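User: For a reading group we're discussing how well predicted structures match intuition. Take Antitermination protein NusG. Before you show the prediction, I'll give you the sequence so everyone sees exactly what went in.
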Amino acid sequence: MTFQHIIHHLDKPHSWFIVLTNPHTELNTKKKLEQQGFITYVPLVSVRRCWEGCIKEIHIPAIARCVFVYATDENVLRMQKEYTILNPQAVAALYQDQ
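Assistant: Thanks. Here is the predicted 3D structure of Antitermination protein NusG, as structure tokens, for the group to look at:
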């Protein structure tokens, strides 16, 4: 995704939404959404894992099953045909009650 592509899409009102994915498919979903022209974000964390006595550092999603998408309301309606979409305000309201 180029910087010009992002600038071109900022003239319309956008919000951040959360796309729920299947387990361990966050990066594939991110790539698919970017190919469709969406601005996406998946925060990653570095972890060390041991395979057959060899320690490797890998990057995994910090928030399981979530891809953040910067989109218009029209785009969200289009995405809802394929994905479950959460509005961040709704998620924040859930955590405020705890």
